[in-house]
Amino acid sequence: MPTTVHQLIEGTEVTTGASPSVTLKYYVDGAANENAALDAVLSTCPSTYNNMPRQSRSAEPISDTKFIVTAKYAPQESNDQGTSGSAPPESSYEFNTSGGSETMFVSLSTKQRVALPGGPPAPDYHGGVNVTDDGPQGVDRTVPVFSFSETHYKTASAVSNSYVASVFTLTGTVNNSAFRGFAAGEVLFLGARGSKRGVNGDWEITYSFAASPNVSNGSIGGFTGITKDGWDYLWFQFEDKEDANAEKVVRRPRAAYVEQIYKRGNFAGLGI
């Protein structure tokens, strides 16, 4: 059901004199929650009214999907809570492509095997990396991880206990649908950090994410058809196998497994 927003003309209140203000009211239908209703009104109500900036928004639920949202406008001035009284700043965005690290126990391919002159052939470990009698030791490598964060400003009424609980629940989950241009399964929500500006001021909340690409029909160490979401875990089972050419029992990969480590989450609950 689409979300609709209608201004309630009869709800408009205008105060003049030494402390002028304007209050506008909107009827919102089809919103998933209070925060979604507040965000829906943002696209309708102006940022200023009669040269006065929007100071606050609040939502009053009528039912699970219906809300009355109130937007208040007043002159910009400092107040005794230490906030500026102006409309919240614009959202900001930061990113980092320095990548992450993982231990690789099976290589993409073995490019060369070299034996001592006159000695037995070099054993074939089938892509196993740094293999000893105790098994593969692997090697650390840099993998593509795209880290980014977004800072948003929300009114005090928007950051309710239920909203904070929703953000908490989504922490450590992976997107179950496309998010910020990434496919489902590629974005991990690392959590949020928020602070309130003054007693009645707005909230500054920074949401942190990391993205890792999905793999479709990939190949590694002789294994083909590997398909995994970006935050799934790929591991290999090793076995002792005789290498007839090298006349030696070696440990080499026998099977590959893809495991889901993180729950999937609906990032729409973040309200950003």
Describe the fold and architecture.
- The protein has 272 residues and is mainly beta.
- The protein folds into two domains: 1-78; 88-272, no CATH class.
- 7% of the residues lie in helices and 47% in strands.
- The chain has helices spanning 34-42, 161-170; strands at residues 4-15, 21-29, 48-49, 52-61, 66-73, 92-96, 100-104, 131-132, 135-136, 139-143, 146-154, 174-175, 187-196, 203-211, 215-220, 223-228, 233-243, 248-259, 264-265.
- The strands form seven sheets. The protein has a five-stranded antiparallel β-sheet with strand order 1-2-5-4-3. It has a four-stranded antiparallel β-sheet with strand order 6-11-14-13, covered by helices on one side.
- A hairpin with a 2-residue loop joins strand 15 (215-220) and strand 16 (223-228).
- The longest helix is centred in the middle third of the chain and has 10 residues, at 161-170.
- It is elongated.
- Residues 78-85 have low confidence and may be disordered.
